[in-house]
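Figure S7 source data.
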Amino acid sequence: AKKDGKNTYKLSSDDEDLSSYKKYALDRDMRKAISNEEFELHFQPQVETGNGSLCGAEALIRWNHKEWGLVSPGEFIPMAEENHMINGITDWVIEKVCQLLKEWKEKGLPIIPIAINVPPIRFMKKGLFQHVKTQLENYGIDPFYLEFEITEDTLLNIESSVYSTIQSLKDLGIRIAVDDFGTGYASLASIRKFKPNKIKIDKIFIDNINNEDKVDNGIICATLNLAKSLEMNVVAEGVEEFEQLKFLKKNDCDVIQGYLFSKPVKKEMFEHIMKAGY
Ligand code: C2E
Ligand code: CA
Ligand code: CA
Ligand code: CA
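Tokens for the predicted calcium ion complex:
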């Protein structure tokens, strides 16, 4: 038994070595990942609850690492926020989306607005507005086709410069969505400070629809009512089951995003989905 115990210990210690080596390697290699063209974007469709038609998509980054394969953003985005690579990565995503929109337009595809995750710290650094404006101009893209998703935390300890950047982006015609709504503390304060165009209800609430959780379902309905009275759109995230869709439809939620309709897909697959329109 002792030997087993020792083996077990040894195994988990190897595991730790592996994961800390992986972290070290990812942190090191991240610096070269943009110039090596190792990042790629996948797209997750958003569809209207009423008729299932395609109305938007969220761009989600993946890292094609030569040693570790496809690395998920959950693994490297927090790291990128710590080593400040996130700013360059965000700017890359913005440019890539504009470039793809141009390509799709030229192919004659019926393009739809693409949502981009813009993390808090990118707003703190200068040059975001100018970068966005330059990319839109370079690729000839109407700002209507861009939407920025901001997590509530950004909106909490908001500096006035961040506030004015968000306002400039809105004035330019870019829609602002509050991401992971309901999970932070800023929810109502953030909505009051500047009216976002859209709210994304976090998956944790959607997960509980089937359990008939009174509190969570109440939060969903209250959010939907609030959004309606302030003329904001609502997207329900992480919809996996038909029962959830039924509940959301019954309560007038405009748009859903989730595995029920589609997982995030590669560019080529997304082009097929756009062409088909659903
Ligand atoms: P998020 O912004 O909340 O994105 C939604 C995540 O939920 C995505 O995971 C998506 O694949 C997943 N998801 C969507 N529908 C379902 C569903 O029905 N069931 C389940 N189980 N999951 C679903 P992903 O792509 O792994 O991204 C994770 C997080 O990484 C994102 O959460 C976002 O915070 C961050 N992220 C992804 N791409 C980017 C990016 O380009 N820039 C930044 N700054 N962050 C990103
Ligand atoms: Ca998001
Ligand atoms: Ca989210
Ligand atoms: Ca999230």
